[in-house]
Amino acid sequence: MPDTDQVVERGTCRVVCDRQLPWQVKVVPGTIRLADGRSFTIAEETSLPVRPGGSRAYRNQRYAMTGESGQSPCFWNGEDIRGSGGMPYQRMVPDTFRVYDESRSVLYRPEEDYSFDYYWGTIKRHPRGRIADGQMLLLDYDVWLCRYDSIVLREDGRIVVVEGLTEAPESRELLLPDPPAVQGGVVLANVFTGWGEQSLYDGGAGIAPKELSEGQDAAPLPALSGRYLDATPRTYEVEVIAYSPDDRSVMLLMASSGTDYGRERSLDEESLRWTTPITASLDKPVPLVTLSAYGHTVDWGLSLDFRTVPPESLKEGASYRISADPHSVMNFPHPKEEALAAIPVLNREALEPFRRKLLEGNPVRIAFYGESTTRSGRWPYQLIRALRHGCPASMIYSSNVAIGGENSARGLLRYEHEVKSVNPDLVILEYMLNDSGLGAGAEPAIRSILERLRQDGIPCLIVTNNGMNPLFCGSMRQVEDAHELYRRLAAEFECAFVGGFAYFQRLHEFGVYYVTELKGNMVNHPYGNVDPDWGRFDQVLGEAVVKAVAP
C-alpha cells in the first residue's frame, strides 16, 4: 500500500470527532485515489476509540531550588535537563505537587515556602519561606501526557489506530513526542490528545451576540478569522465600551473562560479576568486576546473584523461571545518528504561568489550571526557537514558568533569586533525570534547590519526560524511580522533568503501541533536540550539552508 505522498485525491473521506463520545473519532466514507491510478473506497462510516493522553507519576525527584518568586504561577524558569537531578517536567496535574526536604521529614507549604507553575513545571523559593536558595529538595508530582495517534487505512481495507509514544527518546527531554512512524498504509489523519483534556475537538470557532432579547433582531456581527492555536477550548467575551465613528476606532474589553495556565484551574463566567480597555482601528482585524495569570495578554490566533458591521449597527454596550475549539484531528497530513518544499529558498544566486571559492578549492569561513537558535541549533553544523562532504578539496571553517537572547540591535554593536574581524566569506544572519519583541527597532538595526555587509563585500544569507509559544511571547503575529520584514529586506539588499517560519506556520498540515515541535523548552527551541538531533523542524531547516548555500 503506498503511503500518503502518493494520495492525489481524497474526495469526501475525512476523520472527524464523534460528538456523542468524547474520545472517539469517525472516518467519513469516500474514495481515495493514488498516484498510480488505484483507488480505495471506504464504503461505511467507521468509528474508532482513542485513548486519552493520561498522566504519569514522578516521586522523589531530586531538585536544587533555583529562583525566587512571591506568587504563583511563577512562569518559566529557564531550560535544563528534566527529571531527578534536573528540573521538573512540564504540564503538571493540579494539586499533585508535594515538596519535601531531602530526608522527607518536612513537607513545605505552597504560597508560603515556595511558588509554583503547573504549566511550565516550575518551582521557586518564596522570599519569606523556609527553603534556601540551592537547597536540595525531593519532589512528588504527576504530569499530563500528550500523544499522537495515526488513523491508518491498511491495504486489506482495515482502518486502524496506530498509537504513538508519550515521551521523548531521551528521558531527560521534555515530554513532547512525535507522531508515530507508520509503515504500510495511508495515514488518514493524526490525532493529538492534548494535555488533560476532557474530549477530542474538531477545531474551529463561532461568534454570536452575548445576549439577545426575545423578539430582538440580531445585529450584524464582526467576522471571525484566523486559526485557533491553543490546545484547550475557550469561550471569549468581548464588550464594546466606546465607539468613535469619526476616527473609526473602537474600545473593547476582552476575557475568556477555559484553562488558566499556570494554576491550571478553569475560569468561568464568575471568575473571568478582563483586559484593560483595548483601543483598536475598525479598518483592520482586531486580535482576540485573553489576559493570562502572568499579567500579559495572549493572542491564540483569532481576530475580529468590524468592517462587516455597518456603522449604524455598532453601538456602545454591544457584546459578543466567541467559542473556540482546538484542532485535535489533522486530516491527511503531508508526508515529511514534502516539508522542504514548504520553506522558500530565494535569491540563491546572491551566494555565487561564495560558491566559486568553494569550487575552486579555496579555504572559506562562514560566520553564524544571530541568537540562541543559531548558537545551539542543529542546522548550522548540518550545513558545515554537508559542505565538507560535497567540497572535500576546500577547507571549511565556521565562526558561530551568535549569542542566546540577543536581538539585532545588540548584535549590531558587535559587528566590527566579532563578525567582520573573523574575515567571513559568508554571513548567515538569523535574529527573527528575538527581533519579534524589538518592535520598530528591528528594521533600522537589520538595515544597518545589511548595509555594513554590503560595504564590506560579504555575501549574506538571511534565515528565519521557528515560531514561539504565544503563552510565552504573547502573540505569534509579532514573529510573522519579523519574518515578513526579513523577507522584504533580503529582497531589497539582494541577499539570499531561507524562510523557515513559513514551514512552522504550516506544521498542522504535516500533522503536528506546533508546541510539541518546540522540543528544548516548549518556548522557542525546536531541538532537544540534551539531544540536539531530536526534532524534525531543525533538520528540515538545515536541509533548506544547504539547498541555499551548496554548489
What features would you highlight for this structure?
551 residues; five-stranded antiparallel sheet; 11 helices; SGNH_hydro; SGNH_hydro_sf; single chain; 4 domains; alpha+beta
Provide an overview of this structure.
With 551 residues, the protein is α+β, with helices and mostly antiparallel strands. It folds into four domains: 76 residues, no CATH class; 90 residues, no CATH class; 126 residues, no CATH class; 214 residues, Rossmann fold. It contains eleven helices and 31 strands. The strands form nine sheets. A six-stranded mixed β-sheet has the order 26-31-30-29-27-28, with helices on both faces. Strands 15-24-17-18-21 form a five-stranded antiparallel β-sheet, with no helix packed on it. Strands 13-12-14-25 form a four-stranded antiparallel β-sheet, with no helix packed on it. A hairpin with a 5-residue loop joins strand 12 and strand 13. Helix 7 packs parallel to helix 9. The radius of gyration is 25 Å and the shape is globular. It starts with 6 loop residues before the first strand and ends with a helix. The relative contact order is 0.12.
